[in-house]
Specification:
3 helices; about 20% helix; 6-stranded mixed beta sheet; 14 strands; single chain; 3-stranded antiparallel beta sheet; globular; alpha+beta; about 180 residues
Length: about 180
């Protein structure tokens, strides 16, 4: 199923999103707001979820105690007109509120689905970069591939493009080694 993008009105805000969508919708969709545009996507598929769980475990095991690894759905406010729910995120424990992360995480991870591929590789990447997210990773669970960018002087620089059996050792937000085939 393709992502459904609607524009209820120009300049939708996070407050509008909160009024429109219940805190925990039970319809199986993910509701995000990017630059005032509402993006509604279907629930992720099997391979997506397996990769998410495997990567969550790997990150959690390597994560220092002052940081937290969370999975979607969890709101990340990147501006008054932008609220995203990365598949995984890492941030300082003291940066969270009970409800959301009101600013860029240290790491945002998106796991590609057919319905979100273009959004994750373009819109979200640009928005995380603009918000100052230090690291952005994209995992393709079908190709077993990981792409990673790090923020340098306000611009993302690609630091990894690893295939199925290649290992990559991340430095940010903490040291961890990932081999895409272990995420299947």
């Amino acid at each position: 199923m393709e992502a459904v993008t609607t524009l209820p009105r120009t300049g939708m805000t996070r407050d509008d999103l909160a009024a429109l969508v219940p805190e925990e919708p039970d319809d199986g969709h993910r509701y995000e707001l990017i630059d005032g545009t509402l993006i509604v996507t279907p629930a992720p598929g099997f391979r997506h979820q397996v990769a998410s769980v495997q990567l969550t475990v790997l990150l959690h095991q390597a994560c220092p105690s002052e940081l937290a690894v969370l999975t979607a759905p969890f709101a990340v406010g990147l501006g008054v007109d932008t609220e995203v729910q990365p598949d995984l995120l890492v941030a300082s424990r003291d940066a969270f509120t009970d409800k959301d992360l009101p600013g860029a995480p240290l790491l945002a991870v998106e796991i590609l689905s057919p319905s979100t591929r273009l959004i994750d590789l373009n819109l979200k990447k640009a928005r995380y970069e603009e918000a100052g997210c230090a690291s952005y990773w994209v995992v393709d669970p079908l190709e077993l591939r990981l792409l990673a960018w790090e923020l340098r002087d306000g611009t993302y620089v690609q630091v990894a493009d690893v295939g199925e059996d290649e290992a990559w050792s991340a430095v940010l937000p903490f040291p961890v080694t990932i081999t895409p085939s272990t995420l299947a």
